[in-house]
Amino acid sequence: MNRLFIALFFLFSSTCIKAQYVSINAVLDRLEENRGINKNLGKINLDGRKFILIKDFEDHTERNFLVLNGNLATYIEVFDDKATGQTSSNVFSGDIVRSKNQIISFRGNRLEGETIPIALTKTFLLTQQKKILYLIDINTKERWIDEGAINKK
After folding, report:
1. Contact between 68 and 96 (Cβ < 8 Å)
2. DSSP assignment string, 95-149
3. In this prediction, what percent of the chain has a pLDDT beyond 70?
4. Which of 10, 41, 55, 85 has its CA at a distance of 20 to 30 angstroms from the CA of residue 130?
5. How many DSSP H helices and E strands does the chain contain?
6. Which residues are within 8 A (CB) of 116 and not within 5 positions of it... i.e. 6 or more apart?
7. From the centroid of its chain, how far is CA 136?
8. Where are the alpha helices (DSSP H) in 36-99?
């Protein structure tokens, strides 16, 4: 009789522990989704996507665009001077390398069509939050948003 009670106690305990693990796993999945990490985004096609970063300062505004086309990319910097109203831009073109995990590396070795001696490099982490794609700059932690998400709103 004691063995039966002990066996039932262990069976009931293991069922309760399993239920707790399931609920903890659900909470962790929700937290990871909120942060946009630990997702397999390798199957998302980035061809033709444009990512945007806008930085506003007291004296000027910077608008940065990254246009991805296959293994090639174009990085555009636009500077708007608030005092004079003048706009200047730099257009870098180069290639990207996308690893199996969500890392994207951009190497801009051409400025305005001319080869430059030291290439501009940027490394991004591809994330997705609430079905919106973001690129997070590994070095500066700046978040670039997919232009398609802005135009839908």
Report:
1. yes
2. EEEE-SSSEEEEEEEEETTEEEEEEEEEEEEEEEETTEEEEEETTT--EEEEHHH
3. 78
4. 55
5. 2, 8
6. 109, 110
7. 5
8. none
- End-to-end distance of the chain based on CA atoms, in angstroms? 67
Instruction: Find where tokens 């399931």 sit.
Output: 22
Token pair recorded at residue 12: 């009931």
State pLDDT tens for residues 40-64: 677 777 888 899 999 888 888 999 9
In single-letter form, the type of residue at position 151 comes to N
Whole-prediction pTM: 0.72
Give the Cα-Cα-Cα angle 20, 25, 29 (nearest 5 degrees). 150
Residue in 137, 144, 42, 45 with CA at minimum distance from that of residue 99: 42
Q: What is the mean pLDDT of residues 89-101?
A: 86
